[in-house]
Give the backbone structure.
Amino acid sequence: MRPDTPAETVDHNAEAARLERTAGRYPEDAEALLLRAAAHRELAGDRPAATALYDRLLSSPAGLDDPHLVRALKAANLWEYGHEAEARAIIDGIRATAPRDPAPWVIVAEALEAHDELEAAQETFTEAARLLLTDVPEPPYSTHPLLFGRHRVRRMLGAPHDTWDTLADRLNTAPVSLDELHDPKRVWSLGSTNPAELQAEISRLRAELGTYREALSRPFPVAVLHWPADELAELVADYPSLAAEYPSYSDHLATIETSLRELAASGTPNLGIVTATVPSYEAFAASEGSSPADATLLPQYATTLAARGRAVAWPPQRGAGCWCGAGRVYGECHGKAA
């Protein structure tokens, strides 16, 4: 969700301005685009401009998909440039409303942690875990950062492991254990003059950064187009030359799954699927000054949809519905042979 490219290699203000312009062209995607623009403003050091974008979203008459997330990001940003009282009030409000999405909980807990409010951070992580993970047989992927953050804060506080800490250890896929990653003594290693100790710490930090990046919502480097059956029929009827790309709907679905599996086997990370519609594709072609019959536009259209936050991760989580929309669990549908 938040870009992490250093300011010295990217003009974050220019990127924010580009995203704001894109939001004007695609108002249906304004929420995702403006959140990314606000993140770039923060990275550029213009935190008041980021707050203005959060306020713009919160005052939108159309409503938001995730207002709690926007408020959480606004609170974290406000605290970073001296508006602590307002930030605390927003955080208290989020905790009181108890959103069912883990992302706002993670953001406000990490804001408390960043300002040495470790006890409050632990309480916030624990509230969220209790709300979202009680009687859940297997924690959804989106809740993993809650458990990892809670583990980290409790390690800093010297608290003994409990059931959720043990669960966090089990879910950790990094080559370094959570106990080692979250060891408070690691800070001393950064001041060491011993090259071996510094190299070991660099390895730990790389592992931690990899886990952190994996937990965030990132732009998809490869996103595959999925045309629902009625949309594909309309597309081929209106633009017969595209029939060579899509011989049949069943072939289209099989090609999507096969392509994604081949990409995954080659080591390509963070794969996604974007759902296409004929009106959206025609609008994209018009914006490119081209004809929708031009098959070379299809991958560009997929990339644009992904950049607008329309991609969903592949493969679906265990027990989730199949991406094809047939109504069956993925493991019993296109994931059956995986």
Remarks:
- The CA atoms of residues 38 and 120 lie 26 Å apart.
- Confidence is low (pLDDT under 50) at residues 1-7, 212-220.
